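Progress against Task 2.4 (sequence-to-structure conversion) is shown through the following example record, which the project officer requested during the mid-term review.
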Amino acid sequence: MSERAVSPAVVIYDNYPGNDGHRGEYYALMARLIGSTRTSSLWRALWARQPVLDGAIEASVGSYILLCVVRAAMGRRTAGILFRPLPLLEGGLLRLRVKRMLLGLVKRLPGVATLTILPFELEPGFARFASGWIYDPQYWDLHYPDAVDADRPIGAFAQEIRAAAAKRRVVVAVGRQDEAKGFDMFSQLFAARADLRERWLFAFGGRVVDRLVAPCLDPFVAAGGQAKSEYISHDELLDLYAAADAVWCCYALDYDQASGVFGRAIQLGLPVIVRKGSLLERTCRAEGLAYVAYDGEVASFDGVAVPAPTDPVLAARRARQWGEESVTKLRGFLGLA
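Structure tokens generated for the chain above:
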């Protein structure tokens, strides 16, 4: 007789079935850590006997509210993760006020847990509509539960960047480049500051996708910046971090949220350049991370102030601690502890 199939411990609901961005990695990690299976069927999620985790509440707040209400009536657990809680807290638009009100109401239901991926210490107001928090998985997934890409040799792209830098230090911007990711600030800072270019090389890998910042590309390249304005492979992405002395995480005012680029950088012990006053700066201060804050004024940036990297052993230890803490919390909210 064949072995009886083991039922998944958790059903993860996401109404978007694709794996673009980091979705595929995110759900594969959850499957390993909490024994989950994924569905894009709201019907299946509504009637699942197992605890249900809405993997991305922002994709459909209405679906999440329905899940919480119907499943609470049946005495079944439902949790959800908010990736961008700040607009819900500060937004004045009617749709944001309605979502905030509804999330505050379902928070009171038995068996419901809405979680942010930012600690309440950074913004206590998140507690108005969320039950708790975990660290963004991209703040710890390179080291918990196991080390990933730890012994990978430096690739050709990293060697190319380092050769162009000569004896200069390197700032990298990773992935899609647009106004939200601060490409205008990144490129203009390098192009405008000859004194900075003597000590630093700025390099990026990823498509420039925003027509508003596309005009910044040519002056950046003319000033000697390293540009790979195209889709980059996973290995090339890793090479950007391998070549870096600091990582650009200085994002637009309306893109104030946790960041996978930021998370990967701090897991590797790399200093980060963040926007002054942002949630990422608050994270750096609260957690004692290596960083410099930039206000967007070209003349104000001090390259000398960029700190040295954190000991990779200490960075890995912190990531493992955050991972263990986050998974323990998540299992508790789902009733698996």
